[in-house]
Amino acid sequence: MDLRLDEDLSLYSKYVTFYIPGDSEGGLERNALIKIDPTGFFIRQPPEPHNLNETQTPEASLFQTIHMGAAVVDPIKWRLIVDGLVERPISISLEQLKQMPQTHVTSFHECYGSPLAAPTKNVWRIGCVSWTGVPLRCLLALTRPDLSIGTYVWSDGLDSGTFAGVQSDRYQKDLPIEKALSSEVLDGLGQTPLNGFAVFPCRTEDLLVHSQLYFIMKLTLL
């Protein structure tokens, strides 16, 4: 697979920290977690679809789904690590990420249901949200990924807890490399403000297939 970008990577590379695997930089990402509050599963249902008639969904009408509790994050200590099957793993602080060129997208936003049940019934958790962030493919390109064997990008979150009786030290999701390298996948910094459970300081958002992860701390190519 070829990694061909329209973006000028020099506009991004000056805002990242390259490190050698085994250095202290890798592993610092978990230090940003202050606490999980609230803990446990939480859901806020949106209004029925016929009542969602605005171009952009107000925060008060936007659904919220938290599986294992919400991570309270220290913005100074927060780091995004990008590693795995790459030549040059990178570490990015929140301020570094903010200085990179930003992409702005308004997108349909939907939850397709529970991972514990087959998606046979529409749950109607929908909204329309404005996203701002850095294209994931630009961050991956900076690491010089080995696309001959790397097939998925795994995202790790700072949130932890118990879901469906299973204890986990992190929320984790995978994204096929073909999708991760497409232009519509962002590491999001800003969007419609979320009261209470802010998706802070960063999240991955696939604007087409909606594979997302809150409170992100690490991206690993495997």
Poorly predicted runs are 192-201, 207-211
Shape: globular
Helix/strand-derived category reads mainly beta
Radius of gyration: 17 Å
CATH topology: Sulfite Oxidase, Chain A, domain 2
Proportion of residues in β-strands: 35-45%
Multimer state? single chain
Order of helices and strands: HEEEEEEEHEEHEEEEHEEE
Strand order of the largest sheet: 1-7-6-16-10-13
Averaged pLDDT: 82
CATH superfamily membership: Oxidoreductase, molybdopterin-binding domain
The total domain count is 1
CATH 2nd-level architecture: Alpha-Beta Complex
Number of strands: 16
CATH level 1 name:
Alpha Beta
- Major sheet attributes: 6 strands, mixed
Relative helix content: under 10%
Distance separating the two termini: 15 Å
Helix count from the secondary structure assignment:
4
Sequence-ordered SSE layout with sheet pairings:
Layout: H1 10-13, E1 17-18, E2 33-39, E3 42-44, E4 64-66, E5 69-73, E6 79-84, E7 90-93, H2 94-99, E8 103-111, E9 125-135, H3 136-142, E10 152-157, E11 161-163, E12 166-168, E13 172-176, H4 177-180, E14 185-191, E15 203-206, E16 216-221
Parallel strand pairs: 6-16
Antiparallel strand pairs: 1-7, 2-5, 3-4, 6-7, 8-9, 9-14, 10-13, 10-16, 11-12, 14-15
